[in-house]
Amino acid sequence: MTLTALDVLRQRLPQARPRIAIVLGSGWGDVAQRVQDATRISYRDLPGFPLPSVQGHASDLIHGRIGAHEVVVLTGRKHTYETGDADGMKLPLRTLRDWGCEVLVQTNAAGSLQANMPPGSLMALSDHINFSQRSPLIGESGSERFVSMVNAYDAGLREQALAVAAARGDTLHTGVYVWFVGPQFETPAEIRMFSRIGADAVGMSTVPETIIARHAGMRVLALSLLTNMAAGMSTEVLSHAHTLSQAAAASERAAGLLCDVVAQLQL
Ligand code: HPA
Known about the structure:
Shape: globular
Distance between the termini: 36 Å
CATH superfamily: Nucleoside phosphorylase domain
Order of helices and strands: HEHEEEHHEEHEHEHEH
Bound molecules: hypoxanthine
Strand content: 15-25%
Largest sheet: 5 strands, mixed, barrel
Helix content: 25-40%
CATH architecture: 3-Layer(aba) Sandwich
């Protein structure tokens, strides 16, 4: 008999009942160190889990606790720009849903389109623009595939995150995230267009996972760490190394906020 990823998780962690799944993007890796009673399982041991190929992105599943909540953390995600396929996180997220996760907390690094969100700012996604027009649900059957994307980012979870940030004396912005497949960064003309169509931040991830999660019936909270002003908005030269260095500078604050939010989350 071939084991599924869910079989492996149930065998290794028979008592586990996590209700919150967390996906870590660039700059959010410190969260992994803050998981208590942690058990780490490599994606290699979970059939169908992807092996991310991007520097700065790990590939372990961590089960444990943040505050009173039992959580499962995915330390890396598959990006559409790696293969052209938008459905690389479908099997992991459905596995976590089947394991009992009702909430997906996503994190990412993004470029800012707002002067009042300089590098180092944090933003909760209020909505997204799927500019790529790709869907991880292509090929699905059944009427459930026509999933509503209204309230894709759960208003109740976002309000809780904003309240926790305020209590910490930290500023958490809210805004619209536009998905650009990449892996090349945007042109200044593309960024001007994104500003006009209502985007506040731009990045290369998160949107496919939100679509998968909504289709799977999970509620989503997503937080961006703004690592740079978007192309053409400042003189800095964009590169992956720049993203990682800016992300490292803000990582403690980002992880602290996320862990406080998760610890206090009312499901
Ligand atoms: N564009 C796209 N993705 C990003 C950026 C950006 O400016 N910064 C971090 N991830």
